[in-house]
Structures are given as C-alpha cells and as structure tokens.
Automatic annotation (TrEMBL):
Similarity comment text for this entry: Belongs to the sodium:solute symporter (SSF) (TC 2.A.21) family.
GO MF, one annotated term: L-proline transmembrane transporter activity
Function description: Catalyzes the sodium-dependent uptake of extracellular L-proline.
Segments passing through the bilayer: 6-26, 76-94, 124-152, 164-183, 195-219, 234-256, 277-298, 325-348, 369-391, 403-422, 429-444, 450-469
Provenance organism: Pseudomonas palleroniana
The keyword DNA damage is annotated on this UniProt entry: no
Listed name of the protein: Sodium/proline symporter
InterPro entries: Na/Glc_symporter_sf, Na/Pro_symporter, Na/solute_symporter, Na/solute_symporter_CS, Sodium:Solute_Symporter
Compartments reported by the entry: Cell inner membrane; Cell membrane
Membrane-topology annotation of the record: Multi-pass membrane protein
Domain of life of the source: Bacteria
Gene3D superfamilies according to UniProt: Sodium/glucose cotransporter
Catalytic activity: L-proline(in) + Na(+)(in) = L-proline(out) + Na(+)(out)
A GO CC term assigned to this protein in UniProt: plasma membrane
Taxonomic classification: Bacteria, Pseudomonadati, Pseudomonadota, Gammaproteobacteria, Pseudomonadales
Amino acid sequence: MSVSNPTLITFVIYIAAMVLIGFMAYRSTNNLSDYILGGRSLGSVVTALSAGASDMSGWLLMGLPGAIYMSGLSESWIAIGLIVGAYLNWLFVAGRLRVQTEHNGDALTLPDYFSSRFEDKSGLLRIISAVVILVFFTIYCASGIVAGARLFESTFGMSYETALWAGAAATIAYTFVGGFLAVSWTDTVQATLMIFALILTPIIVLLATGGVDTTFLAIEAKNPDNFNMLKNTTFIGIISLMGWGLGYFGQPHILARFMAADSVKSIAKARRISMTWMILCLGGTVAVGFFGIAYFSAHPEVAGPVTENHERVFIELAKLLFNPWIAGVLLSAILAAVMSTLSCQLLVCSSALTEDFYKTFLRKNASQLELVWVGRAMVLLVALIAIAMAANPDNRVLGLVSYAWAGFGAAFGPVVLISVIWKGMTRNGALAGILVGAITVIVWKHFSLLGLYEIIPGFIFASLAIYFVSKLGAPTAGMVERFNAAEKDYNLNK
C-alpha cells in the first residue's frame, strides 16, 4: 500500500475532518446534557440528516446492495418497509416524544424517560431497559465494526484483524471527545456524502454497461427472475422484509435525534428533509446492487471479489469505474455510513451506563465534569467489547444488524409508540412490553419459527402485553396530568 495512494489520502483527510469536528464539539460540551443530547439544540436540517445517517449504517452500502446483487428486486421489499416505517415514526412519535421527554423530568435517555413517564420508584424499568440497550447495541456496534473492517480490508489489502482496529479507531476518537454534538454534526456531513455516492454511482454503472436498455437486457439474460419482486418469496417472506419498518419506533439512536431537536416546530420540516434523503439513498442502493448484476456479467474477469463476498459490490464498482480520487470519496461514504451509526450507538450505550447506572445507583451527587468523563470511559469500554465480538471474519453485516434491529424494535417500539399516544398506559404495562418484546425476539430467533422475521411476533406480543397488563391497573393522577400537558404543548406547537 503506497502512501501516495489517492484513496488512502482521501480517507485520511476525511477522518481528520471528522476528528476535527469532534474537537470543535468538545468546546461546546459543558455538562452531561450537552454530551448526551447536545443541550437539545439541533435545528431541522441537522435533526433530519443526523436521524437518517444514524439509521443507515454500513448495511446501506454493503448489506443491501449485496442482497439485491444476489437475489434481484425481490430483496427490495425491505426498502419499502423501511420507508413506510420511518415516515410513520416521524409522523406519530418524533414531535410527541420531544415534548413528552421534556415534560417528564427533562429525560436525557430512553430509560430515563420510561422511569419518569411511569413514576417507577423501584428503578426496575430503568435497569431492564438499560440492559436491553447494552445487549442489543453491543451486537449492533459489532455490525458497524465488521462493515468498517471489510472496507479497510478490501480497499487497502489489510488483514481483517488490522482492518478491525483501523475502521473503529476514528469513530471512537470523535465520539469520545465531542459526544452528541460531534456525532450530530459529523452525521450531517456523512449524510451528504452518502447521498452523493448513491446518486452518482448507479448513474456511472448504467453508462458503463451501455445505458438503460442494454443494462436491463443483460440483467434479464443473467436471470429473468431478477425483475420479479415475488421471486423465491412467500407471503411470510415479504411480510418479514416489510417488517423491518416496525423497528423504527424502538431504535434509541434515532429516537435520541427527536429528543434533541430544538423545538417541535422543527420536526415537520425535518421529516420532509429526512424522508427525501432516505428515499433517494435507498433508491440508489437498490440501483447499485441491481445494475451491478449487468456490470459483472459483462466483466467476469473482475467479478472474483464480489463472487467471494457479495457485500463488496459497491466497493468493487467504485474502485473499477472511478478515478482513484473520486473512488476515495465514494468509499469514504461507506466509512461515513459506518461511522455515523456506530458513533450514535456508542453514545447511547455510554449514556445508558452513565445516566442510568453510574449516576442513578453509584454516584447520585457526581459533578457534571465527572459524568462527562465517565461517559467517555464508557464509550471506550463498549467499543472494546464490540471489537471483540466482531473479531470473527465470517460475520455478515446484514445478519448482525437484523438481530439488533429486531431486538430494539420489539422491546422498545411498542412501549415508545403507545406511551406517547395513550395516557392509560401503566408502569407494569411498560415493563411487560419490554420483557415480552425482548424475550420473544431471542426465542423466535433461536428456533427460527415459521421463517418469520422475529421483530413481527415480538412487536405484536409486546403491544398486547402492554395493553392487557395496563388494563389490570391504572395510571396515577400525576402521570395523566403530565401526559395531558405534553399533548397540549404538542398540539399548540406542531
């Protein structure tokens, strides 16, 4: 690997810029609220793009294009499900959660919000929700580290072990230093880079394969079923792919963006920006994988790396079709996708350990400076555990993501959604929802029941548990009063 390698130079410049943003954010981080939620100061553009970038991890440029390349358009149901789920999350949860967290003790984390919203004096709700965050986010962090390692491995010819540390180091650096503001500001840059890559790349692939007609004929010649959205699918298979959209209601790293918005008024504009960005990105992702079928059919001599691991399709197309400097920028988009999500996940894990364990149970009177530094130490701890989990080179990005996504979607999704729209929900209902959702996902995944994606039964059973257990009791007058005040505030300002 030459030091003059343009791709390497591009990567170094990009990573240096992200770390510089981290140090700029460091100067604005004075207390734990700043470190965890940026002092609730995000405008609509940063809220929108950071929510999108934190959602779309390495699977956007690796896992999903690889799945489309292997199976054709039948894998695009997942993109449709995600668009529907994201829109409903913005519509029903975003503004209400922003107001509810403020009215319930100015909560900084989801466990903090659950604890205040349901007046849980025992701490049980806080502990269980924080444990769920740590378990599933560590798996999710591992998926990001795997994606980063694959990128460095295939781009610079590093060993997987070296690539593992190289891919994680930069993200850990700016998250450690700058906290939430660094993560949100870098997300905005990264979201811009990702959409640039996903609009430009399919256009160039299309030109390289002879235009729309020639490309489509080549894809059809490879396998006519590539165009068939029902190819090798069943009703359960389609429902499983669409079911990914349910996950949005429970993803702590996305919900944190809603909580950090500067006001409810910013949410509607942020929704429009975020959904436009998301539709363009997912469309580009599907196109990269789909047009890649035609390109590698026409050039089998360079198809080896993609045949070996289909998740490399975007990486190989960028390296083959672009000037090395442009390729460096495009490959930085994968790093951007990995870093944007990984940084959010590290921060949410850190906040769970710091706010929900350390401050609540160990050091109630800890100073703000102490809490910020404990938060930084927790970023390092979670990162090291995730790197250890990612050490297996046979890991697949989409597989790791799907498990963690289902865990959060089922454990937290129904609790968050119902807590912001139904004042009759109780503390025991919330507890039952989290436990039933998480346990269903783990059991369903282990036994692979019916071939159905575990998020769907998890979400349904958790919702039923919340309703029926809540009906066995009643919310306190204080809970109802705060809910009504928050709902009134939301309706006045939306």
